[in-house]
TrEMBL record:
Ranges of residues in domain Intradiol ring-cleavage dioxygenases: 83-111
Signal peptide: none
GO molecular function: ferric iron binding; protocatechuate 3,4-dioxygenase activity
Domain of life assignment: Bacteria
Presence of keyword Oxidoreductase: yes
The protein's name in its UniProt record: Protocatechuate 3,4-dioxygenase subunit beta
Assigned keywords, A-Z: Dioxygenase, Oxidoreductase
Family (UniProt): Belongs to the intradiol ring-cleavage dioxygenase family.
GO biological process: 3,4-dihydroxybenzoate catabolic process
Amino acid sequence: MTANSEGDRDPLFFRDRDWHPAAYTPGYKTSMTRAPFRPLVALGSTLSEETGPAFGQSMIGALDNNLILNFTGQPAIGERIILHGRVLDETGRGVPNVLVEIWQANAGGRYRHKKDGYLAPLDPNFGGCGRTLTGPDGSYEFLTVRPGAYPWPNRVNDWRPMHVHLSVFGSGFGQRLITQMYFEGDPLIARCPIVRTIGQEKAIEALVAPLDMNRAIPMDCLAYKFDVVLRGRRQSLFENRREGM
């Protein structure tokens, strides 16, 4: 519970423990070798994990949130988009000074990674990652290209939908949440074995960024809005920490 300004207690925010998928999901082939088969052990955090390091503007470069230019300074190839939203607590209040990082495939569906063997070409001007700090109201924004879908060796013909990986940090590196954002209208979302490990449609919907024409720039780029909720009943689905921040 939390105390309000009048000294009363706000209601407790119960979490839905079924919101996240099971670790062992045979439809997602690699989970069969990575899922734990013994009870998990909870380890307490240390003071250094809870109090530092502090993320400040001094560590953010001028183009860190501009994935179109931040790799070489020359424009990347692909459909330009704005990805924006807010990092919120369970009451809907914005959380300021949160370090937000994203990484993604290029417009052809290929990552800049030595183990990515997809036949799509690498874009010499696209590094595929960026970072920014949330503003006083918890807002963030990235300029990037829409990532392409790509095949992956799960079943005979499985494809990952267009998606962006996103992480947010608390006050230190020990407080990190990771999730994926999908794009409204992508027909591959419903066909993706990873997405289908999520048992609730509302949880899947929370990972889909709607088109936001109010933030689109005419004759330039479309925009998509994706809010991240850290805890509570409206919590975003995170890959690495069910309980939120």
